[in-house]
Design a protein that fits this description.
heterodimer; A: mainly alpha; MetI-like fold; 2 domains; 16 helices; 75% helix; B: mainly alpha; two-stranded antiparallel ribbon; two-stranded antiparallel sheet; 17 helices; 4 strands; disordered N terminus
């Protein structure tokens, strides 16, 4: 056997040739560095004095430069509340909106996976028409919004039956599911402006409530999509026997189905939590001083005195450390959840 | 007799229904109601309102604002008027590259049409859908051709398409490569898997700043390299294409893990026995990939590209923080464009840009789903 052959051919099916192994490990280690180096650079920059940054790059703490906690002190002590408030906002908004999206989304997904719906096409068209008329009336003719809403709702209830009689076509569960998921294609910037005006009208602009309500809606499609796939795989026998024993649907859902779906809930919840935690565009529109979240605070660091890398690095670390910790803790679940959505589509 | 007695029981006048029973009977509807109300309130209703906004002029007035209906004016201004350079870019004389792009698109369209006509399943709806896709594809290819021509410049539409197409291509190639590496029988597999997953979780805004630091030619970590190459005084952010590529690199660093993790799981669930049989027969790695691995992961691959593309159309964080959309408008995405118009209190223009993005991303994503994802799934099934 020649040397070349020994180098390029595997010994058995489940192993690699020596040359192949070198290439594979080389590629993996190279990419590990690509992943780790930016994170390493933020970590050491947060420990640098301004002089260590502006005089050109230094790489190794204790060797090239003496680490200093001045940036951490500035962010936590000098700025104090200006850092803590956005941090608290981010935590509250991310947690509450995730909990709400999970609850509302799983309920809808469960309902879609177990019951047949047949909404009349006519009612939907009527609803959209009345919605458009209402917006024109409010925006174009200055009708107070609550009068327009009440009139539109009354007209809808009156006309829905008549419209249903003339046009009998109706949609099915698949259409509802597709409609909910397709909301994800909608770029948030399209909805951001009217949402801004809406919250301004009711005086909720720049509050956590506004952000929570918006994030819940934005993340709802993901929850419905992933949880629907999950509920479909849960056998129905258990629920049927509980139903025969006289348990209500609420009891069945909260007592039997949700506990069974725990792996799916963890995966989906973590994904949604991270999306809410990192969200930037809507926070930019809907919050200013009071309800500002961390991504907006970090983005606003592009200070007039020029970028202060050391402070920014601390803020970025504050944002990514909890998430990375959570990821390491639960990464098996997230991968599974993402696969669920991607594979079943 | 049991049957008749049962019928008798049900025929008896029902007891007055309690609230609990009513709630239980309506549970299915009640379960889905909150989701529908939320989506109607924060998604459909704003969508309609945005359409009205896009067709009107917004003006601040004492004690509030006024909205004047002006029809298509906002769109006209951007498509043919004074704001054309912003949305569509500057048109230059078409060069060879432009002709290649247009010819390639036309060839692709002709190939698709011929295949469709021969399939024997031509329908009215299908034809209309294909016409919309073809019109959009041709319009975009002409736009790219004139933008890339001599004296031309990319507008926000072309820039966004560059982020979507370029980003998805780079991320898919590298994500697939990494997944193939990680699927090999190696030690420390779960370690690499967790490590490679991390960038996906990092705040995009944070990534933007980090890459600004890393790409700094004067004080960044690679400064000595730039110095040695003689680029120490040049800034990447002053040149349109290098700025766009830095945005693309930051975006890819974040999203490669997503494609990697999904494709890895798909590769691991490919038919093992077929792979082993092929190995015994002495098939090369490339043959195994082409004949076994790729066909089995293709549907998942198409879906993951679709999901990535949907999110890629919404890009704003990176260009906004990395380059502030600059130099000029070189790195501005459509979402950032809409945000900048909004900040300038041109709410009508902002809504119009947002709507153009909505049309573009919907047509692109629905076309991709119908003409790539669906056939791949059907081929597998």
């Amino acid at each position: 056997m020649s040397v070349l052959k020994r180098l390029t051919e595997p010994k058995s099916l489940d192993s690699m040739s020596p040359l192949g192994a070198v290439l594979v490990y080389g590629g993996l280690i190279l990419w590990s560095m690509v992943v780790l180096f930016p994170l390493y650079w933020i970590a050491i920059t947060s420990l640098k004095l301004p002089i260590h940054v502006s005089a050109g790059p230094v790489y190794l703490p204790f060797v090239d430069f003496l680490p200093d906690l001045h940036a951490w002190r500035y962010i936590f002590v000098d700025l104090g509340n200006d850092t803590l408030r956005p941090y608290l906002n981010s935590i509250v908004v991310a947690l509450v909106s995730t909990a709400l999206a999970m609850l509302i989304g799983s309920m809808a997904a469960y309902s879609l996976s177990r019951l047949e719906f047949a909404p009349r096409l006519a009612s939907i068209l009527l609803f959209l028409l009345l919605g458009a008329v209402m917006i024109v009336a409010v925006a174009g003719f200055g009708v107070p919004w609550w009068i327009a809403a009440v009139v539109a709702l009354a007209l809808f209830l009156l006309l829905a039956r008549a419209a249903g009689r003339t046009m009998r076509a109706s949609l099915g569960n698949g259409d509802i599911l597709f409609w909910i998921i397709s909301q994800r294609i909608l770029p948030p910037v399209v909805a951001a402006l009217p949402i801004y005006v809406m919250f301004q009208t009711v005086g909720l602009l720049d509050t956590r409530t506004a952000l929570i309500a918006t994030y819940t809606t934005v993340n709802l499609p993901i929850v419905v999509w992933l949880m629907y796939d999950f509920f479909v795989t849960i056998p129905k026998d258990l629920e049927e026997s509980a139903s025969l024993d006289g348990a209500s649907r609420f009891a069945i859902f909260f007592g039997i189905v949700l506990p069974l779906a725990r792996p799916g809930l963890v995966a989906t919840g973590l994904l949604v939590l991270i999306l809410a935690w990192n969200e930037y565009l809507l926070a930019l529109f809907l919050s200013s001083a009071n309800a500002q979240t961390m991504p907006v605070l970090v983005a606003a660091q592009n200070a007039t005195r020029g970028p202060q890398w050391w402070y920014m690095s601390v803020l970025i670390l504050l944002m990514i450390l909890p998430v990375i910790f959570l990821t390491l803790l639960l990464q098996r679940f997230i991968a599974k959840g993402m696969l669920l959505g991607a594979v079943k589509g | 007799m049991a049957v008749t007695s049962a019928a008798h029981v049900t025929a008896a006048p029902p007891e007055r229904e309690s609230l609990n029973d009513w709630l239980d009977r309506q549970a299915g509807r009640l379960f889905i109601l909150p989701a529908v109300i939320l989506i109607l309130g924060f998604s459909i209703f704003p969508l309609i309102a945005s359409a009205y906004l896009a067709l009107s002029r917004f003006k601040l007035a004492p004690g509030g604002y006024t909205l004047t209906f002006i029809g298509w004016f906002n769109f006209k201004k951007m498509l043919t008027g004074s704001q054309q350079f912003h949305l569509l870019g500057t048109f230059g004389a078409i060069t060879l590259l432009g002709w290649v792009i247009m010819l390639a698109t036309v060839a692709l369209v002709v190939w698709g049409v011929v295949r469709y006509a021969r399939s024997g399943r031509v329908t009215v709806v299908g034809s209309i859908g294909r016409l919309i896709t073809i019109a959009t594809a041709l319009a975009l290819s002409v736009l790219f051709a004139v933008n890339l021509g001599e004296g031309g410049q990319l507008g926000t539409i072309a820039t966004t398409m560059f982020y979507v197409a370029g980003g998805v291509a780079v991320q898919f190639a590298l994500g697939l490569g990494l997944a193939l590496l990680c699927a090999k029988p190696i030690r420390g597999r779960s370690f690499f898997r967790v490590l490679f997953f991390v960038p996906l979780m990092v705040t995009p805004v944070g990534i933007a700043y980090t890459f600004r630091m890393l790409a700094d030619t004067a004080v960044g970590p690679f400064a000595p390299l730039w110095h040695w190459l003689g680029y120490a005084q040049t800034s990447w952010s002053a040149d349109a294409w290098t700025a766009r590529f830095v945005v693309l690199i930051g975006d890819s660093w974040q999203w490669i893990p997503f494609i990697f993790i999904v494709l890895l799981a798909a590769i691991e669930s490919q038919p093992r026995d077929e792979v082993e049989a092929a190995q015994l027969d002495g098939a090369s790695g490339w043959q195994i990939f082409r004949d076994i691995t790729w066909p089995s992961i293709a549907p998942v691959a198409a879906t993951v590209v679709l999901i990535r593309a949907i999110e890629a159309f919404k890009i704003i964080d990176l260009p906004n923080v990395l380059t502030n959309g600059g130099p000029g408008i070189a790195t501005e995405s459509l979402t950032l464009h809409a945000f900048i118009e909004w900040r300038a209190l041109n709410l009508g223009g902002s809504a119009a840009v947002a709507y153009i993005l909505l049309f573009l991303s919907t047509i692109a994503c629905v076309s991709f789903f119908n003409f790539v994802v669906k056939p791949m799934r059907e081929a597998r099934a």
